Each structure stands twice: as structure tokens, then as C-alpha cells.
Amino acid sequence: MGNEKTIDHGIMWTMNKNKGAPLAVDYCKKNNLKYKLLHNKKFEEFAKELSQVKKLVFFPQWLESYCRVVVEAKILGCKLISNGLLGVASEDYFKQNGQELLNTLRSNNKMLHEKWISVIENENVEYLSPIKVPKITILGTFYDGDKYIKGFLENITNQTIFDRCELILIDANSPGNEKEIIDQYVEKYDNIIYRRLDYRATTGESFNLGIEMSTGEFLTLGLIDDRRRKDGLEILAKHLMYTPMVDLVYGDCFETAVANETFERNSSNGKLYEHSIRPFSKENMIKCLPGPMPLWRKSMNENHGMFDISINFADDWEMWLRSVDGGSKFKKVNKPVGLYLKGGRSQSDKLNVKQKLEESDLFFKYSHLFGKNYNLFKDYFTQLRRLKDVK
After folding, report:
1. Are 36 and 175 in the same domain?
2. CB 383 within 8 A of CB 390
3. Could you tell me if 185 and 79 lie in one domain?
4. For residues 6-40, b (16+ Cβ closer than 10 Å) or e, as one string?
5. What single DSSP character describes residue 194?
6. In the predicted model, is pLDDT for residue 121 greater than 90?
7. What is the DSSP letter of 305?
8. Host domain of residue 369
């Protein structure tokens, strides 16, 4: 905004008839005004050139409800020669210029974003009828889960939209007595499906079986040692429903080391689980985004495949990486949606060398996604490869 004004009159040159570039040229010629055509180029370069313009000459041919280049010109300190076809000129803030206008627009954008979020989540919006989200399949699997199963079922069945869900529980031949508790809930809820296997299935195998059995449009993981916010599924489902360009949404999770705490009462002290804390980008997939409580479209599996059953520990990270590599986009909802139990494992054995080797292999396989984060983590994953010697 502080660039020297060296261009008397600027005309944005485009073949778009509505922008009226030829008329602007004629106007300058008839009035003997010195002008320069501003041709299409990268935004940073265009903005720099626009900042050097004293007056922007712009004659739209039909009503422009909001013309970005005109607003940008005023932010950059340009005066304006135009006609009466700029809808934005009726806004009170159009009288502003420079930093004042920029601050007003930022404030308006923040207000609109907050209003949009409140509409999605139905918070304090009395005039809106409840939003009916698509059916959700919760994929639950366990082995030796006696300690967690009752708390998990209580938490899931108390979700605000559980009536829009089906819970598929895959029992991977557990030696525990989970079935006694599950049967009580199956009798009470007709949207809980329980299936016991006669072999110790891996997590990936169990999740794939659940996906094949599912009838929901959206899918989510039901890890029995974690707990969800009461409206956690509803929040994510509405964001996924209203963001058709993304395949998966996720939110923050508090982290605790104490089993069977609730989202409402826990000892996390606000600590967030690191793998779901970052906003989505290919580079940030260096961590296992989206964390433990994602919600995704079933179509993502149809497009990019299921869990890779040849991977025993990092099967979730591999599927997210493969999907993003194939073009899927994720979205973070900036709100805690659950409670993650640190060190709790619903099915797999304790962390071991095989897991570290799997993670290392995936890092190098998908290194092209990680951008600058590749060099930050390269040494760490390189040293993990040396664990093959002590396997």
C-alpha cells in the first residue's frame, strides 16, 4: 500500500466483455488521459503494479455485485473512475480506503465465517430447523477390550445423532467377556450390529469387513478406548455434509493417560493429541493426520481402496496418505471433538520394531507429499531403517 504512484490511469485488460476494458481505453483516449494496461499475471505481481496506479478506470457492462479488483484497488490507495454498475459501491465500507478498508473486510469475513459455522452446527440459531445428516457407519473393532467396552458403548449411544448411525462391532476372537455387555446394547438398539470372528483378525481386516457391511454414506473409526464429545459426530457430519469438495473432516482431540475418562470430565488439562492438531495440507501428512476420530465419505474407499491388510500397525496412516496422494482433500474443524487415550490400544500389541519399520517405509514411499517437512524428518526415519539390524 506504500508504493509510489507512478501510473496515472490503470485499466485492467481482459477479454471478459463485462469488464468493459475497450470502453475504458476509449474514455482515456477521448479525455487525453495517460493510461497503462494491466495485463493478467500472478496475483502478487498484479497487486504490486496496481499499487502504483493513481486512478483505476473500470466500466462494467452489467451490474457487478462485488468486484474484487475494485476493492483491492481501494485498499492499495487507488482512486476510481467508474459507472453506476458497482454493487459494492452501495456498502458503507466502500467509503473507506487503505488499511481501514482492509481491517473492515477482515472483520466482516470473520463475522461471516462465525455465522456460517453457527449455521452448520445449529448453535443458537433458533430459526433453523434441525439438519438431517447422512447416515454414518461407526466402525468398531476390539480384542481383549473388557476394560473399555461398556464406557465406549455408553459414549457412542449417547451421541446426539446416534439415531442417524449404525455401529458395526467386529469382535476379533477376543478372549474377554465383551459379548455379555454388547448383547445388552444390541437388545436395546436395533442399529448396533455385532459380529464375532473365529480368528484373530488385524485391525485393518476388521475395519475392511465393517466397511463391506456398512450402509452409511459417511464412515468413522470407533476405537473403544477413546471417547467422543457428545455432539462430536454431529459437528463433523455437518461440516462434511456442507463441504462437498473434501472427503474427510477431523477435529482436535484432548489427550489423557487415564483410561475410561469422559470428554466432559478428564485430566488432559487441555493438552491436545499431536496427530490431529495441524491444519490439513499434504506437507502436514507427515504426522498421522487426521488423528483418531476422522469422519470420511465412503466414496473415498471406493476411489482409493480399503485398509492395506499387509500393514499391521500404520494401516490408517497408509490409507490417509494413499487417499491424499490420489487427490482427496481433508478439512480440520477447529474444535475438540473427543478424548484420546495415550498408550491405549484397542486391538494391536505394544509398539515394536515392526511398527517403526512400517512407518519408515511409508515415509519414504510418500516422501513426495511432504515438501519441506521431508528434510525435517528424514534423519529420524532414516535411523528407524537401521532397526532392521535388530529386528
Report:
1. no
2. no
3. no
4. ebebbbbeeeeeebbbebbbebbeeeeeebbebee
5. E
6. no
7. -
8. 352-391
